[in-house]
Each structure stands twice: as C-alpha cells, then as structure tokens.
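FAQ: What does a ligand-bound record look like?

Like this one, built around guanosine-5'-diphosphate:
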Amino acid sequence: MRVFQCAVMGSGGVGKSAITVRFINGSYLEWYDPTIEDSYRKQFSVDNQPCLLEILDTAGIDQYLTLNDMFIRESEGFVLVFSLCQRDTFEEIIRTYEAIRRIKLPEGNQIVPLVIVGNKSDLIDEREVDSTEGEKLAMDWKCTYYETSARTSTNIVPVFEDIVRQLRRSDLIRRQ
Ligand code: GDP
Ligand code: MG
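The answer part, i.e. the structure of the complex:
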C-alpha cells in the first residue's frame, strides 16, 4: 500500500507530540520529552478507503533549525501547528510555510498538501489568535484550517483525514 508521508511542524510547546500521540493511540500526554523526534505509522480509513499514513513528529523548529529543510524534503504533506494561546507561534508557521514553498515549488509541486492547526482550543480564556486569522491564512495559502485540542480530543481525526485527502488529490494531479 502507498505510504503517505507527513510532517507535523511548529514551535516548541504548541502540542505537536500531544496531537500526534492522541491520533496514533488515543491517549493524552500531559508531558512529553521535547527533544524526542519520532515517526509513527497508522492505517485507517478515509472516505471508506484504507490508507497508510506515516507521521513525523518533529522536535521543534526553534532548536533544530538546520533539520527543518531535511524534514521538508522528506515529507509530502505538512501539518503546521501553532498554539491559539501564543501569537508568536502563529507568526512562526508563516516562516515554515515560506521554507516549504522555497523547497517544494522548484521540485514541480504546484500545490503542497497542507493543513494549518490552531491547537489548545480548550484554553478559552488564554486565546491570543482569533479564528478569522487562521481562516484568512488558509484562504491565502489555499489550504485548510482546524482548531484542535489534544487535551479534549477535539478535531484531531479530521486534521489527519484532511491531509490524506489532499495527498490523494496530489497523487491524482501528478498522474495526469
Ligand atoms: P510539542 O513541543 O509541540 O511537541 O508540544 P507537546 O505536545 O509536548 O505539548 C506541550 C505542552 O502543551 C504539554 O504540557 C502538553 O500537555 C500541552 N498541550 C498540548 N496540547 C494541548 C491542548 O490541546 N490543550 C492544552 N491545554 N494543553 C496542551
Ligand atoms: Mg514534541
């Protein structure tokens, strides 16, 4: 079966590992070693068709800037995570997006499968980024936007279903 590769990227502490682990085995991690970088595989069904997704949980773009380009080269799809409670992490995904375009567009990819994720939606009182800002970014980038909570398990599955749909679509376009 075709293995789709996606990378989960974003600033340290936004919940990349919590989202990944929540999706992979349904549990919530209160604490996870920020230096651990791991890849997981999950077989699941999207639109009644089986798929196999490999998810690379990257270890924070702040600390390991040089690894960033390598992750981008190795991945076909991207889940860009920021924290709804930390505006600077929202600004950071814009820089990552620029790096993705710089690397992927010359390879002949017109559209790169991408999902923007605003995480920690359960922390209602601490919100610093408005829903409309995430939605606007998704419009500009022609991608999708979800607000998630790894803690309450809100909207986690739809994120990964969406990336699989986009990866399938990009396979079809490439074959034309
Ligand atoms: P990473 O560095 O991006 O992998 O972030 P982690 O997954 O390690 O999460 C960093 C911290 O944020 C941990 O203490 C998590 O428990 C917490 N966290 C992650 N997701 C959520 C969430 O949806 N809601 C809340 N309230 N905390 C979260
Ligand atoms: Mg992590």
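Follow-up question: can I read anything off the structure? Yes, for example: The chain has a mean pLDDT of 92.
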